Amino acid sequence: MSSISTVIPHFVGGTRVEGTSERFSDVFDPSTGQVQAQVALASKAEVDAAIADAAKAQPAWAARNPQKRARVLNRFVGLINEHMQELAELLSSEHGKTVPDAKGDIQRGLEVAEFATGVPHLLKGEFSDAAGTGIDVFSMRQPLGVVAGITPFNFPAMIPLWKLAPAIACGNAFILKPSERDPSVPLRLAELALEAGLPAGILNVVNGDKEAVDAILDSETIKAVGFVGSTPIAQYIYERAAQTGKRAQCFGGAKNHAIVMPDADMDDVVDALIGAGYGSAGERCMAISVVVPVGQETADRLVAALKPRVEALKISSPTDPDADYGPLVTADAKKRVENYIQIGIDEGATAVVDGRQGRVAGEDGGFYVAGTLFDHVTRDMRIYGEEIFGPVLSVSRVDTLDEAIALPSEHDYGNGVAIFTRDGHTAREFARRVDTGMVGVNVPIPVPIAYHTFGGWKKSGFGDLNQHGPDSIRFYTRTKTVTQRWPKPASDSDSTAGGASFVIPTMD
Ligand code: NAD
């Protein structure tokens, strides 16, 4: 038995299910540092039972026509909107991001659910009339069956919705294994989907840790797994999923650079960098963590303008309407960031602002870290190479555009990158040449809109299809191609029957 009175259960077969494993993980209130609940950690047997339940429910769901499935998603979108405030407060209370930012998290997920309501159109196949004599060829997209999503703590609404909405719209049943650090919103989303008319068993939430993840990966029933989280785990999941022949798309960590050209509007740049570097305490995979000013004069102006803004950040309770950002998610996350600040100093970077000494308006005991700004960060330093995932911005100075393109291009991670300039030719050159999956031009967080696709390159993404947009429909379906010929009946005098052919059919 758990010693904490609130235990967050699983959601299987359309109902909340108490865990039976007797294993639990603490869920904190990051603003006070107190444990506020425990979440049940599913055993392999519990995960297997959820998968079996999903497999039973899936064929009837897939047999509903796409328009009817879309209507359920439509109602789901409506319910999420109705419950926006409740969901945002719940999300904020476990994650620590501010309530307005939590609404953004939900909204970006909701937009993918809206995209998925277009599934009747998205599932249309291709047709070639009279491709050969009397032969037509057409393709159809069919669901895979039972599929799964394993998601990180930092977007507990958005990323589950990115995965589950297209998967379900395509006619699959879905097993969601959300982060054990903030599991309550995914659970509520599953309840709202049921209320919207989704049949029991189509969306299941199993809470857990490695044991639950491994049960998903080793299941022969699950045909595809979508993962988002840190790079070592992304790679592990990609490799293990392959052992049972699953499709896997696994998105990992990031080190997003922002290039600042000498002609950029410095006021706009500073606003953009403060929001993209420190919003959500830097716990975003698309956070800017490295700024690359081109030219020493640009760098001096930039650092001088950033310093007072970083010092003035208001770090406070996520419910404080004036908070710029709230606490980090756990004590470990806070320790990890503070450790990286020390590493940066030891490596010889200039700590223009050291967040360990910064002012925090939130409660004592909360997992707060004030903003840090490093200058003169070089590519041999760990604080440059590794993902810090906290409110730390590093300035790496270069002299030319070519050097600026080389930095993100030669970095192990390749998630997002941004350039700030007024010159269209420079922006175009940069966007075409840089080796990352997503590019912003005067846009600091270039998370693509729902009907384009999201995905990083290199160590930021394993697998070959992106999240949301048309790729999500491709990922959660398989294509069947039908080549058909309807000969005239044998009784007909024009019958085309001509005896067996032993030559490979061609279109000659
Ligand atoms: P994480 O890798 O610790 O956890 C992600 C998921 O994997 C969770 O559900 C967790 O329970 C599970 N997991 C953790 N350890 C495991 C193990 N040993 N075996 C099997 N499963 C395990 O990531 P996180 O800390 O929750 O999230 C932050 C990370 O996610 C950052 O690296 C961030 O950059 C990344 N992220 C990437 C994207 C993207 O689109 N590329 C988006 C959001 C977050």
Reported CATH architecture of the largest domain: 3-Layer(aba) Sandwich
Write out the distinct hetero groups bound to the structure. Answer: nicotinamide-adenine-dinucleotide
Helix content: 25-40%
Q: How many helices in DSSP terms?
A: 16
Structure characteristics:
508 residues; Aldehyde Dehydrogenase, Chain A, domain 1; Aldehyde Dehydrogenase, Chain A, domain 2; 23 strands; globular; binds nicotinamide-adenine-dinucleotide
What is the secondary structure topology, with strand pairs?
Blueprint (H helix, E strand, L loop, with lengths): L6 E2 L1 E3 L2 E3 L6 E6 L4 E7 L3 H20 L2 H17 L1 H12 L3 H18 L2 H4 L4 E6 L2 E9 L2 E5 L7 H12 L3 E5 L6 H12 L7 E3 L4 H9 L3 E7 L2 H12 L4 E5 L4 E5 L5 H13 L9 E6 L2 H16 L19 H17 L2 E4 L18 E4 L6 H4 L6 E4 L5 H10 L2 E2 L1 E5 L3 H10 L4 E4 L15 E2 L2 E2 L7 H6 L1 E9 L23
Parallel strand pairs: 1-5, 8-9, 8-11, 9-10, 11-12, 13-14, 13-19, 14-17, 16-17, 19-20
Antiparallel strand pairs: 2-3, 4-5, 6-7, 7-23, 12-22, 15-16, 18-21
Helix pairs in contact: 1-8, 2-4, 2-7, 3-4, 4-6, 10-11
The chain binds nicotinamide-adenine-dinucleotide (NAD).
Please explain how this structure is put together:
By secondary structure, this protein is an alpha/beta fold. The chain has two domains: 7-252 and 460-481, 3-Layer(aba) Sandwich (Aldehyde Dehydrogenase, Chain A, domain 1), CATH 3.40.605.10; 256-441, Aldehyde Dehydrogenase, Chain A, domain 2 (3-Layer(aba) Sandwich), CATH 3.40.309.10. Helix content is 38%, strand content 21%. A seven-stranded mixed sheet has the order 15-16-17-14-13-19-20, sandwiched between helices. The chain has a six-stranded mixed sheet with strand order 10-9-8-11-12-22, with helices on both faces. α2 packs antiparallel against α4 and α3 packs across α4 (99-116). The termini are far apart. The mean pLDDT is 96. The structure holds nicotinamide-adenine-dinucleotide (NAD). Nicotinamide-adenine-dinucleotide (NAD) binds at residues 150-155, 177, 179-180, 209-210, 213, 228-230, 233, 251-254, 285, 387, 389, 415, 456, 460.
